[in-house]
Backbone:
C-alpha cells in the first residue's frame, strides 16, 4: 500500500510540474490559461514539490505573492504533517 501511495505522490508532482510548464507556455502565446486556483490546489493536495520546481524551472508565478510564499508554506505544512504521521 505504501508503495502505491508513493507512486501516486510522484505522479501528482510530475503532473503539477507539467501544468506549471503548460501554463507558462500558454501565457507566452496568449492562450486560455490554467487558473491560479487549480495550480495552488495541485500544490495543496500533494504536488507542492512539482509546483516549486515548475515555478523556478519555467520562471512562472515567482513574483506572485500567493505563489512565492504560499507554495513554500504548503511544503512546510506537508513536511510537518509527514513527520508527525511518521512518528505517531
Residues:
Amino acid at each position: 500500500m505504501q508503495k502505491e501511495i508513493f507512486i501516486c505522490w510522484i505522479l501528482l508532482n510530475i503532473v503539477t510540474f507539467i501544468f506549471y510548464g503548460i501554463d507558462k507556455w500558454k501565457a507566452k502565446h496568449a492562450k486560455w490559461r490554467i487558473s491560479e486556483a487549480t495550480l495552488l490546489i495541485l500544490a495543496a493536495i500533494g504536488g507542492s514539490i512539482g509546483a516549486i520546481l515548475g515555478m523556478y524551472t519555467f520562471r512562472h508565478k515567482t513574483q506572485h505573492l500567493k505563489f512565492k510564499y504560499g507554495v513554500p508554506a504548503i511544503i512546510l505544512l506537508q513536511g510537518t504533517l509527514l513527520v508527525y504521521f511518521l512518528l505517531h
